What we know:
Helix content: 40-55%
Radius of gyration: 28 Å
Shape: elongated
Oligomer: single chain
Structural class: alpha/beta
Largest sheet: 6 strands, parallel
Strand content: 5-15%
Order of helices and strands: EHHEEHEHHHHEHEHEHEHEEHHHH
Number of helices: 15
Amino acid sequence: MKLLVVGASYRTAPVATLERLAVAPADLTRTLDRLVAQPYVAEAVLVSTCNRVEVYAAVSGFHGGLGDVCAVLAEQAGAPPAAFANHLYVHYDSAAVDHVFRVAAGLDSMVVGEAQILGQLRDAYHWASGADTAGRLLHELMQQALRVGKRAHAETGIDRAGQSVVTAALDLTAELLDGDLAGRPALVVGAGAMGALSVATLSRRAAGPLTVTNRGADRAVRLAESYGANAVPIAGLVPALSTVDIVVAATAATEPVLTVDVVTRALDRRDPARGPLVLLDLAVPRDVDPEVAGLPGVEVIDIDRMATLLADGPAAADAAEVGRIVTAEVEAFLSWLRGADVAPTVAALRGRADDVVTAELRRLAQRRPDFSDDQRAEVARTVHRVVQRLLHQPTVKVRQLAAEPGGDQYAALLRELFDLEVPQTAGVDAVPDVVETVDGRGSFGVADVPVTDTDQPPTGGER
């Protein structure tokens, strides 16, 4: 099997496209099952946050696997693949490993170095494990990715770049509100992981009074009590909006919670002298109706706006150090993969030798029926020792060579020389190691791949 990553992120797609591709928690298991039901996809992990939607898959062929994943994404988005093909990026084999490790280390995040993506990857991995869609290859990949992410944060200063998208969003908010959040009344809509982080961050910055609302009132009450905030029912959203300066919206709703009607009614009740009402929309799908941005007295900061404002982040030196860690870890993982790939061939070679020895001993027994049991046993031991000694050095050497770049050719050569029957689980498509952003400018694009219909038998920074 080979590794394939197909995804879209804040780097390649507007929030409207991410909304269509996003997979709600209620749909995760169904989508994972749909992925592994495809002909070329054996394993799958799905990451869906406010900043990215990515499928990590173990596939038996590049073109077939890409077509299968795109078909499922298209089904999820309710649109043909061509509708979002230019926003997708594709990574295969070694480039896929590099991408996953970079994501885990926080190098691909909107806020470089934010640690929340590590928890989101862990959650995605656990979900796939529970759905039984992560096999040996993805188990090893995800475990190593999580370890690489932890190592990056432990051994470098990458954390200085920023703790989360919430932190960065509130930094931007402070700039709009004369540089200080202290004493600014704030409302958090949503009591999940992102909402909890938002309340904690606002509390640390002395914003207040703080109010929390959520469709599930019990969760809002528990979160509010933890930080000395107030909890209001979602039915009281309009009056709550009219009394605050900052709103952080981070729900899992599939439709906007802050509609034009809701915000307009709140503005009618709000004192214009308070200044702008700043709405931080950290949800995908969006919690704030896009048309709200056109209302007077409102500032909307959503994922698209944050991506623009945070394009040139700090911590270049720390990011470079993390990059070196990632490069070393990728090579170590690829060495493990190459060694794992040759193991079935070595096993097949030893199996062939055992078959030959067994056949010859059986023939000897027929030709020399006068041999005693002890004599036959001694001959068998001698022949097995000879074969094992003959095979030992070549098999040790081929394992060593297979761990080096291009090492898969040695396993192929052994199969050819000894006419070995080894189940082929690796991809056979001839494709480049790195397939970058699919936007029509690169050497390869999703739009170039025939995607055919086939008959079928989420915390913190990146929410």
